[in-house]
Amino acid sequence: MSTDVALAASRSRSMKSSETVKIPGIGFDAYDVGDFYDEMFDGERQPRAHYRALFERFWHLRADELERRQMAAERSMRRLGITFSVYGDQEGSERIIPFDICPRIIPEPEWRWLERGLKQRIVALNKFIDDIYHKQSIVRDGVIPEFVVRSCATLRQQCMGLDPPMGIWCHITGVDLVRDREGQFYVLEDNLRCPSGVSYVLQNRQLIKQTFPQIFEQAHVLPVDDYCSRLLDALQAQMMHRVRQPHVVLLTPGSFNSAYFEHSYLAQQMGIPLVEGRDLVVHDSYVYMRTTRGFERVDVIYRRIDDDFLDPQAFRPDSMLGVPGLMQAYREGHVALANAPGAGIADDKVVYAYVPQIIRYYLDEEPILPNVETFVCWDETQRNHVLANLDKMVVKPANESGGYGMLIGPRSTKEEQATFADLIRAKPRNYIAQPTLNLSRVPVLTENGMEGRHVDLRPFVVYGKEIYVLPGGLTRVALRKGSLVVNSSQGGGSKDTWVMCDRSSPVA
Question: Where are the annotated segments for Disordered (predicted)?
Answer without folding.
Answer: 488-508
